[in-house]
Write a structure and sequence with these properties.
Length: 752
């Protein structure tokens, strides 16, 4: 016989001995991760806090009235409009003439080449002169002219044209160079001096070729081929002697741009910049920006201390807000508080909203109502429920208000939009259900923006435009949630009703495999699903989690389905030839194997928890008593499931539903009174065994669960009425639950 089961048993004993140590390690590990998350969130918040000493520039918006008088504390110059200042800088840079330098080596080389052609061309027959001319790439006609008696004269004219061009300055091309500047002259560096030369006094390659043609036509009026030869010789030998100095030109232009005066006015001390309730204009905002710029320049050297104190004050206030929210989670949502992964999810959602708020307020200077607080509200409502979502929305609104210096209008508007988002989340169970929240949230945004604008005395056109932006923000928020939800569910192992409804499809491969390979377990799971759904709904839990968790809670029985009584078609029991310990290990394994299958199927964490917790640490009574009859010294803990115990309402109800369904099935005469007695006995036994100690279920909840179970069990396992003429073998018998469950039309289970 394999020793593997005994090794598993010994390993389980060691784990139980070290249980306290492991729990302490997990406790301190959670505290350290929670502290690291808090510190990281505070550091992120520090990055978002604006660095300006006065936030009036940010909160003041064109077309809206100022909330208070703003008086100039000192005299300062008024900054020019940014677009005007930039245009003046561009104009100043274009007025700078481009700088060219004279290459002193070009002219002597060209003159030497032309002199050699004049000397070699006297006879017109020298082979070396002919070879030099052919190397210039001239046409045969030009080569014939230059090799003849007129060659020296043509070379002399070329020499004179080159001297004239180099004396003035020869550049590659004038037209394109003039397009880059508004200057009327070119700055030419010659012999260490920079001399301005008008554009018209300069030559380029095109103008030199035109000059050569004109001079050739005058010198050889009856020989156009000689004029063309002169033009070709100039084009072949004459090159520009002016070189563009890009770095020098750009340096001078930068100096010219920086020399532009950035001010166009003066604001004297004690002059009113804007009055209370006065409608802000672009000039008012420009004055405030100028005041802030001069204030930064005039700040004392030790002003960083005041900034540091202000930052510490904000961080202290933010820390109190976060600590209060964590206290709320600990008291009302202990499972979320104890799971650092879920806390990280809340922190990421809040940080995402705050980051968008930073873009809206600091970068685009938009309306504060465009901060998508409803992304957090709707996501938290779908992932954690409405109560937690409302608290998260309130805390996030206060955090954003503290960080960006926003007041009551933002808090009121964000609360209104957040409440609208939370109230619409309850009915979202399918993808198409997002249309209703989209419309309601958009309307809430528009109403909040217009209402707050009317309170502040905003203008009608501006309010309508901002209301339209609110509608767009509402639609964008819901679209962002639909895109974020699958990603958040995958990364943070959380589950929404949308995903649960997809998992409730009985045609999923793992459930079809359960139906084919373990039909008794499959039918048992359907009944337990109805019970768990009703029980969870009775105590305020999530009915969908209860039902879907029940569908998958016994998938670990697929591998060894014949070892479970509900799947045994014959009277032969496979456990008859096994020892109680071996039977215990086989039965216990379906929990562990079910969790492994769930992970391979990528089922959400809520389903995996249902599989692991639906037996808790209950005792396998039959095998324990059987082992005890053979060996009175056996330990009870060796015949208990490994746990953990149920830690949520849904898994606790699943445990109770699983137990009462099996007990009710075993009744020979399942009358309503007997079913009630069995349900009561099972629930009391689980309480006495301490299986519900880690779940949030109260005795009042247990009473509601019991009353929700009894009608369903009575309907499923009722006794059949005796009909006259019916065979005696069928009189008084109750229907086979498996036959009843085989007909899905008779099960009142919502599979939508």
């Amino acid at each position: 016989m394999s020793t593997e089961p005994f090794r598993v048993l010994e390993s389980r004993r060691r784990e139980k001995k070290n249980g306290v140590r492991a729990r302490l390690a997990r406790f301190f590990g959670r505290r350290s991760r929670r502290s690291a998350l808090l510190v990281g969130f505070l550091l992120f918040t520090c990055l978002l806090i604006p660095r300006e000493p006065d936030f009036e520039v940010i909160t003041l918006r064109e077309g809206f009235p100022a909330k208070r008088d703003v008086i100039a504390p000192f005299q300062f110059y008024l900054l020019k409009d940014r677009s005007l200042y930039h245009a003046e800088q561009v104009s100043a840079a274009r007025k700078v003439p481009p700088v060219y330098s004279v290459d002193p080596a070009v002219a002597p080389q060209v003159h030497a080449a032309l002199d050699s052609l004049q000397g070699d061309g006297r006879g017109g027959r020298a082979p070396e002169a002919r070879a030099r001319l052919e190397g210039l790439g001239l046409t045969p006609s030009a080569l014939h002219v230059l090799s003849g008696t007129e060659g020296p004269r043509v070379a002399m004219l070329a020499q004179r044209i080159a001297e004239q061009a180099y004396a003035a300055g020869l550049m590659p091309e004038i037209r394109s160079a003039r397009l880059e500047t508004d200057a009327t002259a070119v700055s030419v560096q010659r012999d260490g001096m920079r001399v301005p030369i008008p554009w018209g006094a300069l030559y380029d390659l095109d103008s030199v070729r035109e000059l050569a043609w004109d001079e050739g036509a005058r010198a050889f009026p009856n020989r156009p081929e000689a004029a063309r030869a002169l033009q070709e010789l100039i084009a072949a030998l004459v090159v520009p002697n002016l070189r563009y100095e890009a770095s020098t030109t750009e340096r001078i232009r930068a100096e010219s741009r920086s020399a532009v005066e950035p001010y166009d006015g003066l604001v004297r001390k004690d002059e009113k910049i804007i009055g209370s309730h006065e409608i802000a204009t672009a000039l008012h905002i420009r004055k405030l920006e100028s005041l802030r710029a001069w204030n930064d320049r005039a700040r004392p050297k030790d002003a960083w201390r005041q900034d540091l104190l202000a930052l510490l004050a904000r961080l202290t206030l933010i820390s109190f807000l976060i600590a209060g929210f964590l206290r709320y989670l600990k008291q009302n949502h202990p499972r979320v508080y104890g799971d650092v992964n879920l806390l990280l999810l809340l922190a990421v959602l809040t940080a995402l909203v705050m980051a968008v708020g930073w873009l809206v307020m600091s970068q685009f200077r938009g309306n504060e109502m465009l901060i998508p607080i409803t992304v957090l509200s709707l996501s938290a409502a779908l992932l954690f429920g409405q109560a937690l979502a409302f608290a998260a929305t309130l805390v996030a609104s206060l955090l954003i208000g503290v960080v960006f210096g926003l007041g009551l209008p933002f808090l009121t508007g964000s609360a209104l939009a957040g409440i609208a988002a939370i109230s619409t989340a309850r009915g979202v169970r399918r993808r198409r259900d997002f249309y209703r929240p989209m419309v309601i949230i958009a309307a809430a945004y528009a109403f909040a923006i217009i209402a707050m604008g009317l309170v502040d005395g905003g203008q009608g056109i501006v309010l309508l435009r901002r209301g339209l932006w609110g509608v767009i923000a509402g639609f964008a928020s819901v679209l962002a949630v639909t895109l974020l939800l699958p990603l958040l569910e995958s990364i943070f192992s959380v589950t929404t009703d949308i995903t649960l409804l997809e998992l409730a499809d009985l045609n999923r491969p793992i459930l079809r495999r359960l139906m084919l390979e373990a039909p008794g377990t499959y039918h048992h799971s359907l009944v337990v699903g109805s019970l768990a759904e009703a029980g969870a709904a009775a105590i305020g839990g999530n009915p969908l989690v209860g039902r879907v968790g029940a569908y998958y809670h016994d998938i670990g029985k697929i591998e060894k389905a014949e070892y479970y009584v509900e799947n045994q078609s014959s009277a032969r029991n496979r456990h008859e030839k096994l020892s109680p310990t071996m039977s215990c290990l086989i039965i216990e394994a379906h929990v562990r194997e079910g969790a492994e299958i769930a992970r391979k199927e990528r089922l959400p964490r809520a389903i995996v928890d249902a599989i692991l917790e639906h037996h808790g640490t209950t005792l396998m009574t039959f095998f324990y008593h059987k082992a005890q009859s053979a060996d009175p010294t056996v330990e009870e803990r060796d015949f208990r499931y490994p746990g953990p115990k149920p830690r949520s309402k849904e898994t606790a109800v699943l445990m109770l539903a699983d137990a009462v369904e099996a007990a009710a099935r075993s009744l020979t005469e399942p009358t309503p009174s007997r079913i009630r007695g069995v349900v009561t006995r099972i629930l009391d036994a689980r309480v006495e065994d301490g299986q519900l100690d880690e779940s949030p279920i109260t005795f009042e909840d247990l009473a509601r669960v019991r009353e929700s179970f009894i009608p369903i069990l009575t309907a499923l396992f009722h006794a059949r009425v005796d009909y006259p003429g019916a065979p005696a073998s069928e009189r008084g018998r109750r229907p086979d639950p498996r036959r009843v469950l085989g007909d899905k039309s008779r099960l009142k289970i919502d599979h939508s």
